Hints:
- Strands 7, 8, 9, 10, 11, 12, 13, 14, 15 and 16 form a ten-stranded mixed sheet that branches. A six-stranded parallel sheet has the order 3-2-1-4-5-6, with helices on both faces.
- It is an alpha/beta fold.
- The chain has two domains: 120 residues, 3-Layer(aba) Sandwich (Rossmann fold); 175 residues, Dihydrodipicolinate Reductase, domain 2 (2-Layer Sandwich).
- InterPro entries: Gfo/Idh/MocA-like_OxRdtase_N, Gfo/Idh/MocA_domain, GFO_IDH_MocA-like_dom, NAD(P)-bd_dom_sf.
- This is Gfo/Idh/MocA family oxidoreductase.
Amino acid sequence: MDRKLKWGILGCAGIAKRAVIPGVHLSELNEVAAIASRDEDKAKRTAEELNIPVAYGSYEALLEDPSIDVVYIPLPNHLHKEWAIRAAQAGKHILCEKPIALTADEANEMAEAAQQAGVYLAEAFMYRYHPRYEAMKDLIQSGAIGDIRGIRSAFTFNNAGDAANVRYRKDWGGGSIYDVGCYPINAARLLLGKEPDAVTVNAIFSPEHDDVDMMASGLIDFGDISLTFDCGMWAASRNPLEILGTDGIIEVPSAFVTPSPGSGNFFVVSRGERKEIHTPDVNAYTAQADHLAAAILGKSPLLFDSKDFVANMKVIDACLLSAREHIRVVL
Length: 331
């Protein structure tokens, strides 16, 4: 058996502590070996809480640790580019939280740095590693719902009362399109296997939240098929996905979050019958870590490379431009 890859975590973000670190702890190919914070006491507390052997008081110190193979970056969005590039230059493979950057140009810079360093750089859209997405793609390709006519999706939650949250810092890459709108966009691209032609987005920009988009609704034009979506940080929680075909519908009640056993199941509606499709209870964060490790160890190719994350950022760029300028943006 191969040794487990050693992971270093840059920062003590909630997503790292709540989901990614526990997911890596369950991994067959990986282990969390170190965590860093600019506040060394915070790093030590988090390390003790989550059974991590080493705590560093700076990100630089972790990158200098020769034993670290992979760096996970859950930092605020505006710091992704800097620390991904620095991690690549230190010879570390990288898993970076979504959205991978603030712009497609930044994403390109990050991809080039990783390529020059000979390391893998992956974007942390963990939902894609749950087996239900392969099951959904197989159903579509089999013709179970006929020809696709449209996709509808949403990802909303209400955190507007937490005014100090990093999501409400415009210069830090705050806003609902960056934070949760990226999921429906990414899923539509994944399921359709192509890139959109144009986008039209309307958004609520909140002066009391540093003028970030707190709610957005959009139409992503893939030619003869469109994604209609909404996203928000000032609305009741939900994350459904619906794929409409000529002969049926695929319904996913919780498309991007699978917190409990059975919540990865979805439904197919055809000829008046609604059938539940059961999928394995898989920790998507563990699956994501194992997939990256398998690529690093030469066991299998990386499913989602830099072309994918750059393309996703191009759509996000266009959505933000459309919302700000009230225009249809052609890609």
